[in-house]
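User: Let's play a game. I give you a shape written as tokens, and you guess the letters that built it. Ready? Here's round one.
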């Protein structure tokens, strides 16, 4: 029992694993609970907040959706997260539950540790860390594909301790978890799911609690009310980066790069999306998402790509007075060729 403290659920998981989709489901089933959302994204375009704000779900009031877009939450704890939490806690109408969506590149550990800061420790506790995993991506080996190369590098240089940045993050997010959602099971077979479970468990010394799901459809009874108080156990869940930091290395997100591409109106969205698939494949784009202005359509088009999988749909009407724009955020590894990608996207939109 955590007394009168407000429970906060931290939802983490790699880029595009399905965090926002799961949160939407959670809000749709809020059952009268007042839930405040803190959403952190990598990249300057608040797509997740933009999708949740005004989504029409009764439990999702615009003032309860707080966006933190000044970098990954794990690096901006003191400047962004703590002041945001204190402001939220000072409101006269305090929420029943707080849900924090980290960016797909965030290490959850520093965020969870922040709940031990005196400003918030007496008022909030971490109900649990929920890590969403793209089971289809794991099954395709997207987080482990550099093993041979890394092992070869290690054998050349004894001091080298780095796995691929994707694999390290994947493991850090698993190690922080109280509950793991193996999402996107609609894309894999039962045998593949068993393989994913084995792979994920092999990355943690603790026995993991894993639930398979598709489109984040999990009962709130399973998701909320874990009652763990994870902040008290954070010392046992060290990330690769914390261990490296103890060895004198600094944590940064230098391995990843994001930029926003602004384009003109797109009159042929189907063909645009087909061409984007090629751009993503040619340039190893990890994540691409944003909004598209389709002339003659009253609705805003959402484009979402996770690796080679791409989706597009109209989500809501452009608001009166809102500028109709085509803006997409692109995320990749640090050597991604932003100039070539921007020019290819311009060509795709033409
Ligand atoms: N097939 C399938 N697609 C899914 C599932 N869950 C989410 N998606 C799709 O995956 C894409 C990314 O989902 P999001 O919920 O935005 O993922 P996210 O983790 O919030 O993404 P970031 O915040 O960018 O890291 C969207 O196109 C979703 O529709 C699922 O279970 N199955």
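Assistant: Ready! My guess for every position:
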């Amino acid at each position: 029992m955590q007394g009168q403290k407000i429970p906060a659920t931290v939802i983490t998981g790699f880029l595009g694993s399905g965090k926002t989709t799961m949160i939407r489901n959670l809000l749709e089933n809020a059952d009268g609970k007042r839930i405040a959302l803190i959403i952190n994204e990598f990249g300057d375009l608040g797509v997740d907040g933009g999708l949740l704000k005004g989504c029409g779900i009764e439990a999702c009031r615009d003032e309860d959706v707080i966006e933190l877009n000044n970098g990954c939450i794990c690096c901006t704890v003191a400047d962004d997260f703590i002041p945001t939490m204190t402001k939220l806690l000072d409101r006269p109408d305090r929420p029943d539950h707080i849900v924090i969506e980290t960016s797909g590149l965030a290490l959850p550990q520093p965020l969870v540790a922040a709940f031990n800061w005196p400003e918030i420790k007496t008022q909030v506790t971490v109900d649990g860390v929920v890590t969403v995993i793209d089971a289809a991506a794991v099954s395709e080996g997207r987080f482990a594909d550099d093993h041979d190369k890394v092992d070869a590098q290690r054998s050349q240089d004894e001091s080298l301790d780095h796995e691929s940045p994707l694999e390290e993050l994947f493991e850090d997010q698993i190690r922080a978890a109280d509950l793991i959602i193996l999402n996107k099971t609609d894309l894999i077979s039962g045998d593949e799911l068993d393989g994913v479970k084995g792979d994920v468990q092999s990355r943690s010394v603790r026995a993991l609690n894993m639930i398979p799901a598709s489109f984040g459809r999990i009962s709130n009874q399973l998701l909320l009310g874990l009652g763990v108080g994870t902040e008290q156990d954070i010392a046992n869940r060290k990330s690769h980066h914390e261990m490296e930091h103890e060895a004198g290395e600094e944590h940064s997100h230098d391995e990843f790069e994001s930029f926003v591409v602004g384009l003109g109106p797109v009159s042929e969205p189907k063909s645009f999306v087909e061409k984007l698939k090629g751009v993503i494949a040619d340039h190893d784009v990890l994540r691409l998402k944003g909004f598209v202005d389709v002339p003659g359509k009253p609705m805003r088009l959402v484009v979402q790509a996770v690796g080679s999988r791409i989706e597009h749909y109209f989500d809501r009407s452009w608001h009166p007075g809102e500028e109709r724009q085509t803006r997409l955020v692109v995320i990749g590894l640090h050597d991604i060729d932003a100039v070539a990608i921007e020019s290819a996207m311009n060509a795709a939109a033409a």
